[in-house]
Each structure stands twice: as structure tokens, then as C-alpha cells.
Amino acid sequence: MYRIILATRNKNKIIEIESIIGDFVMIEPPAGLPGIEIPECGRSLLENSLAKAAFVYRLRGQPTLADDSGLFVEALDNEPGIYSARYGKNDRERIARLLENLTGMKSRKAAFRAVFVYYYAPGKYESFEGECSGRIAPAPRGTNGFGYDPVFIPNGYRVTLAELDPATKNRISHRARALNKFREYILKNK
Ligand code: IMP
After folding, report:
1. Residues lining ligand 1, judged by CB closer than 6 Å?
2. Which is it for strands 2-6 and 64-73: parallel, antiparallel or unpaired?
3. What span, in angstroms and rounded, lies between the C-alpha atoms of 34 and 147?
4. Which residues neighbour 90 within 8 Å (Cβ) at sequence distance 6 or greater?
5. At residue 51, what are phi and psi to the nearest 5 degrees?
6. How far apart are CA 41 and CA 167, in angstroms?
7. Ligand 1 centroid – CA 112 distance (Å)
8. Mutation test of ligand 1: which of 43, 69, 94, 172 has the most ligand atoms closer than 8 Å to its C-beta?
């Protein structure tokens, strides 16, 4: 088992990440981190993810995995994108703003993207990207998952991510796809 520090405090993400890679990685609880806000001011998912991983690596000196993710909506010039978490005060407001902005738009195509950075030695890191394509539903449906899950219908499905069982989401999600690349990398380099 590898011990890795996970540079996130988002409980929903931690649960998903543990169920995707918990079989071969022991994730150190972020509660072990001092109560410092991890900076997020980059211009891309990679910049944000790298900044978080480097920041925590410098504090702890142990291999660190960080992620940044977001929802990219074609008709909205890829908004909310890297600002997905800051698109409103809470999930309900963020979803309402998204649906409002999409009113009358022809395309409802969207994709969730995640970029993980694994920072393992001073100045040394690898990044892993994953995408889950789909479309935005007309109204929220379902209670599983978190964030924009109630309005995201993945390609090949007729239900939202919030209507899918967690095991299915964790097989097809942007996070799962990126973490499966991370798994391959670790297995190849161990
Ligand atoms: P961050 O990666 O912590 O900056 O947050 C990204 C934001 O994107 C989250 O707060 C959610 O609003 C949204 N997001 C990222 N991944 C998912 C997902 O799997 N389902 C629903 N929303 C997501």
C-alpha cells in the first residue's frame, strides 16, 4: 500500500477518490493538514492542481495527490469551468444559475474534467486528466453525488449522475478516468 496525502478537504471528493483508488493507496486524511486554505488562483485545472499539490508537498514533504475539476459547458464558452465551485453560494444556486444561463440555448453539451497532480519529490510531479462528456438536463433530478450531478446526463445514459448509483458514477466519471491513469502510472513505476 502507498501512503499518499490528499490535498483536498471536499468530503464528497474524498469519498469518491477512496472508492476509486482505495484498494492500492492509503490516503492520509486531510485533517492532518494545518488549518490553512490551499491557494486556488490559476488559469487552468492543471495550474490549480499543481499549486495545491506543491503547496502541501512543501508543508509535509510526503507524496501528495491534488485535484482540480469543473464543469465545462459548450454553449457558455466553457463556463463555469475552473470557476465551477465559485459559480454561486451553494449547489442549488450554482445549478439555478447554470440552467438560467442555458435558457434558449440550442446546445446543452457539457463535460466534467478533472486534473490530478501527483507531486512526489522536490520539483517532480506527474499529471493525469480525465473527462466525462454529456449534456445538461432541463431540470435537476436525483439525490446521489454532489455539485452539478443532478443536472448532468453522461453520454450513453438517460439519467443524471445523481440518479446513478455511486459505483456506476465511479466507473465513468472524469475523476475515475484520471485516477485510472494514475493507477497505471504507479503500477508501472513502483
Ligand atoms: P474544485 O475542484 O474543488 O475546485 O471544485 C470543482 C467544482 O466543480 C465542485 O465544487 C463542483 O461544483 C464541480 N464538480 C467537480 N466534480 C464534480 C462531480 O463529479 N459532480 C458534480 N460536480 C462536480
Report:
1. 10, 68-71, 84-85, 112, 145-149, 173
2. parallel
3. 26
4. none
5. -60, -40
6. 32
7. 8
8. 69
Measured from the CA of 68, which atom of ligand 1 is nearest? Answer: 2
In the numeric block, the cell 444559475 is attached to 97
Cα gap 53→35, rounded to integer Å: 16
Q: What is the third-level CATH fold of 2-188?
A: Maf protein (3.90.950)
Residue type, 37: E
Given 67, 68, 77, 91, which residue is catalytic?
68
Q: How does pLDDT run across 104-159, given as a tens digit for each residue?
A: 999 999 999 999 999 999 999 999 999 999 999 999 999 999 999 999 999 999 99
| Dihedral sign from CA coordinates of 16, 18, 24, 29 | positive
Domain spans of the chain, in order of start: 2-188
Atom of ligand 1 nearest to the CA of 80: 8
Is 68 catalytic? The answer is yes
pLDDT in tens, 49-77: 999 999 999 988 999 999 999 999 999 99
Question: Which residue(s) pair with 117 in the sheet?
Answer: 66, 127
Contact by Cβ (8 Å): 62, 6:
no
In angstroms, what is the span from residue 86 Cα to ligand 1's centroid?
A: 10
